[in-house]
Amino acid sequence: MEAFFEDLYAYAAAYGLRILAAIIVFAVGIWLARLLSGLAEMAALKSQLEENFSRFLRNASYATLIVIVAVAALGVLGIPTASIIVLIAAAALAVGLAIQGSLANFASGINLSLDQPFKVGDIVEIANRRGKVNQIRLFTTIINTPDNVRIIIPNSRITSTSICNYTVNGTRRLDLTFNVSYEEKIDRARHIIMNVLAMDARVLADPEPVVAIKELGDSAIRFAVQPWVRAADYWQLKYDLNTEIKQALDENHIAIPYPHREIHVIGSSPASHQEHAPIEH
């Protein structure tokens, strides 16, 4: 028994300080990892990054720092760490090759979070799909279409195509077209349409609405009606103005022609075109 305690004393004298130093390094490392990962999350939130990206940044930075601290503690104990580092690097490379498609989506998700071409609630058109952004995830983005269909788009596809954001500027221009008969006075028709726009509070005064002749068609004068509206009012106001302007033109007896065609038959007698009653059997 005495020999055992002597060996234990000799081992403690030889390795006790190293063990104590390794414990101190690991404990301080954990504290620093928590502190730095928390600071990284706070910085991400202040940069207006999405919450899920901020949370991922905190967790990823914490895990990375813990691995570094663990390797450092093993080094203090005198354990060779070169082989451990090589093993970790090889494992990371193998995992990266196995999930390279997901990594592309992840990198694109980080890019979207940093550039912020759109945010949750924006009306966008991505990859020929239009809808409201519901979620921006690490690997995918979810949008809901106007008919309430959920579409999940990989982030790598979003960053490789054009993005139309209909909300970010705050205002949009409506583009309507109304046909008026050539027999009507242009100024009178324009005045009626302008009055309808002026009566609707959703139509912005600045920029000023435009009512102008768009085209002299085959059977009608085509007016371009272009008021500016808030992005949130766009669709409802479009439907309402179509109704209100049509009613105003009708009330003022402004004719709205429709295309028609006259056919003249040459070289045949009128009798040949008389309708005959069907013969019943």
TrEMBL record:
Domain Mechanosensitive ion channel MscS positions: 102-167
Where found, per UniProt?
Cell membrane
Record-annotated Mechanosensitive ion channel MscS C-terminal domain positions: 175-256
Q: Where are the transmembrane segments?
A: 12-36, 56-78, 84-107
Membrane topology type, per the record?
Multi-pass membrane protein
MF-aspect GO terms: mechanosensitive monoatomic ion channel activity
| Matching Pfam families | MS_channel_1st_1, MS_channel_2nd, MS_channel_3rd
Quote the InterPro entries the UniProt record gives. LSM_dom_sf, MS_channel_C, MSC_TM_helix, MscS_archaea/bacteria_type, MscS_beta-dom_sf, MscS_channel_2nd, MscS_channel_C_sf, MscS_channel_TM-2
Q: Does the keyword Protein transport apply?
A: no
What superkingdom does the record give?
Bacteria
- Is Chloroplast one of the keywords UniProt gives this record? no
One cellular component term (GO) for this entry is: plasma membrane
Keywords, sorted A to Z: Cell membrane, Membrane, Transmembrane, Transmembrane helix
- Main subcellular location of this protein, as a coarse class: membrane
Q: Which Gene3D superfamilies match?
A: 1.10.287.1260, 2.30.30.60, 3.30.70.100
Q: Which family does it belong to?
A: Belongs to the MscS (TC 1.A.23) family.
What is the name of this protein? Answer: Small-conductance mechanosensitive channel
Please name the source species.
Anaerohalosphaera lusitana
Q: Which gene encodes it?
A: mscS
